[in-house]
């Protein structure tokens, strides 16, 4: 089939070679952005008297027909037309005749594709920001229900100190908040128009780049035409932000998987987020959490892939850059779905209060309380640590816990210990008394919940 750029060519390539070079199998996803960019471009060409109004009108009408078909999934893309840009241009010429060929005046596919990518990613990132916010809402609501649920806190996956279960959930809230902030920051770089940079050097036509930027809703334009068509930083940033975000989800997924295990039994997942086994009838597998943990690999892969593709590329456009798309599309979809699934999974999971309570009652995570108690009585913390360590060893050897020791046992270890120690050793007290700023004390957690709510997007005002 004759190519739109055929003039200089004598021979033609074979279909399988065309197929290797084509991006239409995946960049058809940019169809609406491509048409939007073209509509803005043609409007500007007319305004700047580069095209006649009559030609401009015809082109606009043709583009609208194609847009309508695109919205109804009625377009048929041809591999021989390589990419979304040439496919649309060909459709336009078929629709309105040779005047359709005037659309590409003062433009190149290089600034065109960059424009499409900016438009596409802007929308995706805005949706992802909303999904993060939605997930944060779920986290804070769940946390509010569990301020007084005392749970074991871990270091090295060994029980460390009791904490409020809400405190644990809120830790993820703040990770998501930083992810939201990073995505918002990314938007500043995405929100910049490369249109009008031409192939690399700008154009001889008296175009107005600010006009197209405004029509397309971009708040700024690239200052350098070479940079405009060569820059894919905004995608690398997105992939990098996404990698951090999914790393957070993966850590949370890992905890959900542990918590749902028979060994922990801290939570029960709703049936909608679990699956059974084809052979073992008793199983309820936390598939969604596992899958999100697994998808972390592909998102990191896309980041490394993109960085590697760009490394060593001379300015300006190189065909290598066509490789920027699939990873970006896939990442946007993966992040969006993972967030939405995670929100549903956390919202519907049941927290097993009694198992949390017995986990903190029967362990040594109150040992720090005893050491702190002695330190308050004037014993240097290092010595207090030693005294308590010996008591713990004694308990482990005799198969009891600290609260099972008699007051005599305590006083033998240190005469400063009095009856009030039993109260101090209760897990509730351990949590309640950790009232330092940002700590797990119930009062601090309540303050944190208020702060968290204030960090959510104000749906009415549309801002933070
Ligand atoms: N399909 C190409 C891409 O995605 C569009 C830009 C092509 N430009 C060119 N000069 N071949 O990167």
UniProtKB/TrEMBL annotation:
Task: Give Gene Ontology CC terms.
Answer: cytosol
Its localization reads: Cytoplasm
**What EC numbers are recorded for this enzyme?**
4.3.2.1
The cross-references to SUPFAM superfamilies, in alphabetical order and at most eight, read: L-aspartase-like
The record lists the catalysed reaction(s) as: 2-(N(omega)-L-arginino)succinate = fumarate + L-arginine
Record CDD domains = Argininosuccinate_lyase
Q: In which pathway does it act?
A: Amino-acid biosynthesis; L-arginine biosynthesis; L-arginine from L-ornithine and carbamoyl phosphate: step 3/3
The source's domain of life comes to: Bacteria
Give GO terms for biological process.
Answer: L-arginine biosynthetic process via ornithine
Ranges for domain Fumarate lyase N-terminal:
7-301
Q: Print the keywords alphabetically.
A: Amino-acid biosynthesis, Arginine biosynthesis, Cytoplasm, Lyase
Tell me where in this chain the Argininosuccinate lyase C-terminal domain is found.
364-432
Report the GO molecular function annotations.
argininosuccinate lyase activity
Q: What is its main location?
A: cytoplasm
- Homology family: Belongs to the lyase 1 family. Argininosuccinate lyase subfamily. In the N-terminal section; belongs to the lyase 1 family. Argininosuccinate lyase subfamily.
Protein known as? Argininosuccinate lyase
Q: What is the lineage of its organism?
A: Bacteria, Bacillati, Bacillota, Bacilli, Bacillales
The protein's gene is named: argH
């Amino acid at each position: 089939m004759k190519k739109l750029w055929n003039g200089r060519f004598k021979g033609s390539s074979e279909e399988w070679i065309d197929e290797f070079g084509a991006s239409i199998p995946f960049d058809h996803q940019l169809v609406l952005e491509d048409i939007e960019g073209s509509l803005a471009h043609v409007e500007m060409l007319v305004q700047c008297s580069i095209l006649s109004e009559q030609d401009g009108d015809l082109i606009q009408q043709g583009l609208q027909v194609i847009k309508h078909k695109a919205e109804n999934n009625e377009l048929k893309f041809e591999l021989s037309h390589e990419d979304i840009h040439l496919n649309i241009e060909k459709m336009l010429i078929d629709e309105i005749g040779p005047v359709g060929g005037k659309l590409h005046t003062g433009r190149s596919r290089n600034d065109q594709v960059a424009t499409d990518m900016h438009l596409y990613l802007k929308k995706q990132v805005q949706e992802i920001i909303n999904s993060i916010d939605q997930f944060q809402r779920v986290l804070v609501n769940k946390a509010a229900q569990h301020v007084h649920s005392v749970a074991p806190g871990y270091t090295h996956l060994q029980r460390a100190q009791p904490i409020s279960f809400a405190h644990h959930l809120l830790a993820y809230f703040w990770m998501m908040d930083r992810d939201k902030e990073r995505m918002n920051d990314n938007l500043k770089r995405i929100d910049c128009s490369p249109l009008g940079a031409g192939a690399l050097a700008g154009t001889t036509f008296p175009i107005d780049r600010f006009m197209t930027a405004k029509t397309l809703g971009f708040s700024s334009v690239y200052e350098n035409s070479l940079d405009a068509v060569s820059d894919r930083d905004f995608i690398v940033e997105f992939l990098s932000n996404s990698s951090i975000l999914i790393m957070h989800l993966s850590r949370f997924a890992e905890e959900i998987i542990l918590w749902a295990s028979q060994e922990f039994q801290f939570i029960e997942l709703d049936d909608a987020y679990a699956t059974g086994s084809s052979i073992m009838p008793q199983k309820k597998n936390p598939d969604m959490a596992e899958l999100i943990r697994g998808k972390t690999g592909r998102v990191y892969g896309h980041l490394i892939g993109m960085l590697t593709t760009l490394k060593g590329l001379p300015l300006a456009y190189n065909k290598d850059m066509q490789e920027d798309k699939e990873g970006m599309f896939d990442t946007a979809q993966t992040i969006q779905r993972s967030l939405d699934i995670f929100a549903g999974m956390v919202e519907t999971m049941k927290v097993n209060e009694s198992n949390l309570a017995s986990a903190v009652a029967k362990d040594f995570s109150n040992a720090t309380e005893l050491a702190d108690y002695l330190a308050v009585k004037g014993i240097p913390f290092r010595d207090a640590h030693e005294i308590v360590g010996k008591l713990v060893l004694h308990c482990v050897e005799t198969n009891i816990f600290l609260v099972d020791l008699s007051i005599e046992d305590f006083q033998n270890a240190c005469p400063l210990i009095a009856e009030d120690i039993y109260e101090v050793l209760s897990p509730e007290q351990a949590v309640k008394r950790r009232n330092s700023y940002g700590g797990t004390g119930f009062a601090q957690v309540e303050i944190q919940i208020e702060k968290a709510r204030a960090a959510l997007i104000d749906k009415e005002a549309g801002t933070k």
